[in-house]
Specification:
The protein has about 350 residues and is an alpha+beta fold. Helices cover about 30% and strands about 25% of the residues. It has helices at about 15-30, 75-80, 85-100, 120-135, 195-205, 225, 235-245, 255-265, 285-290, 295-300, 320-325, and strands at about 40, 50, 60-70, 105-115, 140-145, 155-170, 185-190, 215, 220, 250, 270-275, 305-315, 330-340, 350. Keywords: ATP-binding, Cytoplasm, Ligase, Nucleotide-binding, Purine biosynthesis.
Length: about 350
């Protein structure tokens, strides 16, 4: 036996610094596209910089902050080997929380945790995040890629992000602006978005035994392609509406479903009624319900059922709101109204049956 031993190293522990450096080089071209005039410096610093002097035009600027992830949708991306769409999901989850209060998204940072750094894979994830930031009108000012061998398998990863926005204090949207008679406008989702995938995966894979490459006639594409459909990013649509019409509140329909999320912006003395018959949920929602024997209440508290964002506006703003969304290519419709709340009424009630 040799008396000499080989010392431990970061590489022998499973961390590849060179691969991380390569990933940074590959992602630079995409990060450069996700910028704003206020973004200062480039990729590689210890902190992202944003020129706050741009806020001088505000009388009383309120900074809004949000953070989120993509959840178990990352498992679909991993199994499909498609990594450049979940970044859209990440951005949408963050910036559309910001815009609910009327805030304009300014910048985002991301965090990517992997079991093993595959540079091209990490760069593809960042590409999607950068493209999402462009769609949201915000800058991607920084991020972190962490390699965690031993905690995650070589092909496992997760993503998270945080964003900051700004809104003028006297233009802050929310429950205190809502009045009886207001209309509730629904904005169509692009599909499942990024919520409820634990239920979806359980039903489609564990119970039904479907494969991702299965062609599904109702979708006109494979199951995997449907499940990876990126989250619709509504921030610029919502901000456009605030410039063209009076808006009282927005509600981002994410985990918890339509009723629970809309209830978050309905004041205690008021009640919102949403009529299911005003829209038809996409085929994927019906599929999950049928294959899993999932009751409608369970579906509705888990999935968005075809509505990704809602706006509460005064009746006189309805026509302008619908025209604004139509001009932007966003399918939207009046789905309900706000009334005084009875003693035993819930904040939000869903009525009727979905249109067939």
């Amino acid at each position: 036996m040799s008396s000499e031993t080989t010392g431990a190293s970061y590489a022998s522990a499973g961390v590849d610094i060179e691969a991380g450096d390569r990933a940074v080089e590959l992602m630079k071209q995409w990060v450069k596209k996700a910028t704003r005039p206020e973004a200062v410096g480039g990729l590689g610093g210890f902190a992202g910089l944003f020129d706050a002097s741009a806020l001088k035009r505000y009388e009383r600027p309120l900074l809004a902050s949000a953070t989120d992830g993509v959840g178990t949708k990352v498992d679909i991306a991993r199994r499909m080997g498609v990594y450049d769409t979940i970044g859209h999901d990440l951005v949408g989850m963050v910036v559309d929380d910001l815009v609910v209060c009327g805030a304009e998204p300014l910048f985002m940072t991301d965090y990517i945790c992997v079991g093993k750094v595959y540079p091209e894979r990490v760069a593809a994830i960042v590409k999607g995040i950068a493209e999402g930031c462009v769609l949201a009108g915000c800058a991607l000012v920084g991020g972190e890629t962490a390699e965690h061998p031993g905690l995650l398998g070589a092909d496992e990863f997760d993503v998270a992000g945080a964003g900051t926005g700004v809104v003028e204090a006297d233009r802050l949207l929310g429950a205190d602006r809502i009045r009886p008679g207001d209309a509730v406008i629904a904005m169509a989702s692009s599909g499942l978005h990024s919520n409820g995938y634990s239920l979806v995966r359980h039903v489609l894979f564990d119970r039904a035994g479907w494969e991702l490459d299965r062609e599904v006639p109702e979708f006109g594409r494979t199951l995997g392609e449907e499940l990876l459909e990126p989250t619709r990013i509504y921030s610029l649509d919502c901000l456009a509406l605030t410039r063209t019409a009076e808006v009282h509140a927005f509600s981002h329909i994410t985990g918890g479903g339509l009723a629970n999320n809309l209830a978050r912006v309905v004041p205690d003395h008021l009640h919102a009624t949403v009529d299911r018959s005003t829209w038809t949920p996409g085929a994927v929602f019906d599929l999950v319900g049928r294959l899993g024997g999932v009751e409608r209440p369970e579906l509705e508290k888990t999935l968005n059922m075809g509505v990704g964002m809602m706006a509460v506006v005064p009746q006189e703003s309805v026509d302008v709101a619908l025209a604004t969304f139509a001009d932007r290519g966003l399918d939207a419709w009046v789905a309900g109204e706000v009334t005084e709340r009875g003693d035993d009424a819930a904040a939000v009630t869903l009525t009727g049956d979905y249109a067939s």
